[in-house]
Amino acid sequence: MKGSSIGYLLKEGAKNVWVNRMMSVASIGVLTACLLLIGGAVLFSINVNSIVGYVESQNELKVYLKSDITDDVRSSLDANIRKVANLGDIEYIPKEKGIITFSKTMGEYSDLMAGLEGDQNPLPDAYDVKVKDLSALNATVQALQSLEGVDSVAAPVEVAKSITGIKNAVTVFGIIVVAILVLVSLIITANTIKITVYNRRKEINIMKFVGATDSFIRLPFIIEGTILGLLSALLAFLAVWVGYDYLLSHLTQGAAGWLSLAYKNFVPFDQVAMKLFIGFIGAGVVSGMFGSMLFVRKHLRV
């Protein structure tokens, strides 16, 4: 195909968007709405996982040491415990510091702890360790308990199960919702383009009868579908951007309690903007091209 022919077909594809502007607006509106729903589902899933991840990072294990542990064993244990996988921050808590901290948690009843210093201190030395991935909690606890000098490990097993379950459920739910919305957007967009192609079936048939090749007939429709997809993607991206920033600014003004915690762990839009933009462009172009190629082919069989 000559360069002049390609230029002509490109102009025709762009021209068709304006000539059939009512159907173009309908196509853009439908695809933009679908992309908005997909973008909202993706952002919701990302932010829930971010919040759950923060809660996950705050869970701690308490590693209690044996009361008769020697200095040599304690020294080697300090090195070995830092080699255990899946651990984040590690802090050694000698029993002298532990009793002071425990007394503060007693509040007005802290006087009950009087006299429990020195040799009377019933608390063992311990380590406070944070776990990176709660789904691997059991393996981490077993690794810690196998270390020489460790008496026991206190772990939030039930909390870990709940958080892991929520995280997995949100991930699966997000994937299912996005997949359904992508399928719906493809079907709706394809049907919208189908109507456009059907309204111009006589034009296609005439071009076919006068000897135009299938590629020559198909290309303007593909270009038209691509333009519609690009415009829809840009509109959806801008709408999601403005809406997300508005939501965050609104939460900033009235955030309190758990809502404040959630807001602090919301993912900034600029962190996901590029991936979301590329995803929108890809989905828009594929939807437009898919619909055009699928339904133009039917009218090429004359």
From TrEMBL:
Domain of life: Bacteria
A cellular component term, taken from the record's GO annotations: plasma membrane
Residues of the ABC3 transporter permease C-terminal domain: 175-298
Membrane topology designation: Multi-pass membrane protein
Segments crossing the lipid bilayer: 21-46, 172-198, 219-244, 276-296
Compartments in which it is found: Cell membrane
PROSITE patterns for this protein: PROKAR_LIPOPROTEIN (PS51257)
Keywords: Cell cycle, Cell division, Cell membrane, Membrane, Transmembrane, Transmembrane helix
GO biological processes: cell division
Residue ranges of every copy of the FtsX extracellular domain listed in the record: 60-153
Stored NCBIfam families: FtsX_Gpos
Family: Belongs to the ABC-4 integral membrane protein family. FtsX subfamily.
Role: Part of the ABC transporter FtsEX involved in asymmetric cellular division facilitating the initiation of sporulation.
PANTHER family: CELL DIVISION PROTEIN FTSX
Annotated protein name in UniProt: Cell division protein FtsX
Organism: Acetanaerobacterium elongatum
